[in-house]
Amino acid sequence: MISIPSFSDLRLRVLNSGGVNPDGGYILYWMISARRMTWNFALQRATDWARQLGVGIVILEPLRCDYPWASDRLHRFVIEGMIDNAKAATLPGVTYFPYVELKIGNGRGLLEAVASHASLVVTDDAPHFFFPRMLQAAAEKLPIRLEAVDSNGLLPMDAADKTYPTAYAFRRLLQKALPAFLDDRPDEAVRLAPDVTRPKIPPNVLRKWPMADLSGLLAPNGLSNLPIDHQVCPVSIRGGTVAATEQLQDFLEQQLDHYQELRNSPDHDATSRLSPYLHFGHISPHQILEDLACHETWDSSRLSLETRGKKSGWWRMSPSAEAFLDELVTWRELGFNLYRHQPGPEDWTTLPEWAKNTLQQHADDERPTVYTLEQFRDALTHDPLWNAAQRQLLREGRIHGYLRMLWGKKILEWSPTPRLALEIMLELNNRYALDGRDPNSTSGVTWCLGRFDRAWGPERRIFGKIRYMTSANTARKTSVTSYLERYAE
Ligand SMILES: Cc1cc2nc3c(=O)[nH]c(=O)nc-3n(C[C@H](O)[C@H](O)[C@H](O)COP(=O)(O)OP(=O)(O)OC[C@H]3O[C@@H](n4cnc5c(N)ncnc54)[C@H](O)[C@@H]3O)c2cc1C
User: Within 6 Å (CB) of ligand 1, which residues are found?
Assistant: First the structure.
């Protein structure tokens, strides 16, 4: 009794040898990274099974308190998303179970308890952060079938079988492989049989693991008793699918036309700002492509047949839309590809050989300026533009995309060693950025150390052959006047 997936089977992995429980009362969707009720292949898989077995679904969306860098900022963003999901899940046949762990370890046993009444468990496939370890542990514990579904990108992660050294090489793969997957989109809405009743969570489970009081947690001081980092405060960007969709519409209507021309200008701030929503799974790349295609009156029959890896012209959309898709698809999915095929890519040893060699050769170069992690954190360098970028990170949980490169390059220049620079970048990015702890956190940070790049001349002190950037050049090439004023203090 196996259900055939209603999407490419490259997106589906069965993680254990457990069978389908014939006495199960529901399908359990364990929502861990694609935290949304729309455009979600894993949710679609759960509903496909539910229709086949004539049962409803329970959606368990947990939030642990002991993951690295857990903070008020990240918790609030996720809980705002949970509120949207709770509203969207009021459908016949669906029970939404939000769980927020209040003390470390309280959530232990919850998945097994809810799964013990289920036919099988479907979850999100995620190649990074603590997810692979958590999925493996769940696969070992659960006696019933556990399926992981990849909703991360337009190209299924398993459509590639190796890593790619450059965006150019990965773009060539995309241009060959992607057309076969572009019309394979997840359902926009949940589809269940109309007469299915809403599953009940057993009372003993709810007594031990009560459903989260989401609005209470968002009230003033609602998070204060949780063992998470309270120094990293919430930001004004609201989390969740509703805010993500508004942000997308706003970008398409107001900014997209200028994206090609102004995306590198911190003063204009013309990028989409969708990365936090993509990171927490509040929005799907498929939804973004669909709305963009609608805005551009485009469909996949317009794709170019060329596969030479050219940056523009392949989609046959406007230059701005092409530039945006190169970031959203080529660069973003390159990070997922890296994590799928290169274990632990945040580790120094996984950098390209040429980059490690040149950085090692210059590791003992005299460093006229060196800062500690705390000085970087508190934006106490001598460089006003770097400090402004760091203040934006502290205050808003983001750095303008162009300045993010400068931010990383200067940490390399002003750290005692390149290995320490890697640690400092990961620590600051992952603690303060809403979109941190993502495959693209690691690809962005390690790009500053040569990943996905080539050797550049002239060879310089500290950097060796690694691409070099300066604040003066950045300020000359783009406009930072109002940016500097905004983040002066
Ligand atoms: C040092 C450093 C650290 C970074 N850390 C992160 C991070 O923690 N999380 C993260 O998502 N991105 C990271 N990036 C990549 C990039 O800077 C951000 O994705 C981008 O600035 C997000 O802003 P946006 O959503 O407005 O992007 P847009 O320009 O609107 O692009 C649309 C989407 O494409 C993707 N994207 C854009 N640029 C890149 C890129 N260079 N690499 C990979 N994907 C990209 C993002 O998902 C983004 O939301 C980092 C880059 C550097 C140099």
Answer: 263, 271-275, 278-279, 327-328, 331-332, 335, 401, 404-405, 407-408, 429, 433, 435-436, 438, 440-441, 443-445, 447-448
